[in-house]
Amino acid sequence: MIIDNNPEFGYELACSMPYAYWLHQQGKLKKIVTCQGMKPFYYFCDNVEEKYNARSIDNSNNGVQNLPNTWVHHNALAVFGKGYGELTEEERFEANGTLDYAQWTPPPLHDFYYDDTLDLPENFILVSNSYNLEHALPPFQYFDIESLCKIFDMLTSKGYNVIYKRPKNTEFAIDANEWLGMNIKGHMEGVGEITDFQLIDHYENVFLLDDIMGNTGGTYNEAQLKIFARAEGFVARGGGSSILCSYFQKPVIIYVCTSGDIRPGYFEKNTYFQKLSNNNVHAVVDPISVIKERGYRDYSKVYSNVNKIF
After folding, report:
1. What angle do CA 241, 248, 150 make, to 5 degrees?
2. What is the DSSP letter of 186?
3. Labelling 215: which of 119, 138, 224, 306 has CA 20 to 30 A away?
4. What is the pLDDT of residues 98-139, one digit of tens each?
């Protein structure tokens, strides 16, 4: 079997990689054709072609249509034998975030990439953030300067180091929502207006992911996979990166505002987020519609989870 696809990063993590690894276990995987830089995610395949330099959001023509799970937010036909529109409210709750797991085995990224000899900060939590267009709309689903200060303060006061992942969207193949690079700006008490990249310089125990990658060697994705494997836990905004965090067998706090992830039941026991590894996903759902009505993003449950879990 040849898997040839270039979908959004989250689709590749949730739908493509588990199918590829299942095929590998069955001795049926012949080749992977994927985006540039993705070979480390398919470490178990000897024949990987990094063909695509961009990702496509057209799921009818980006290879997803040929996978057992063609839609990342549910597989109602597999679970209930009928379309999502035919489900009751109770059935939709059960279907949301649930895939067909018959040919779905996530590769053990943590076990493969864990290396305790690497020169990395000890006892660290990885905070994953991004600031992109969201379905062609301005960003809503992200951690702003004030919330980052609060999260960094909470974690460092508990004795953790923090590694902050904030892609510039030049490190990997991107999709249409990521082409416009933008800065997160805000006010830091005692400092004034600042970007999130500048914020790192004001903390002794907070490190930018890009700055410590040289300690691991390899490509960008090889380095981040090795770093993720050493994390004690994760705080992430929703999207593909939160799916990646969920592969590494540690608690994940996710701040979710948009897409199908806000549907009731999306992070329950049988959903793919909870099945990607022996982890424990804690989702804080703050829908865009509620943010607009309220006038601000509410991170209070993120803070309470950070305090309780870490």
Report:
1. 60
2. E
3. 306
4. 999 999 999 999 999 999 999 999 999 999 998 877 666 778
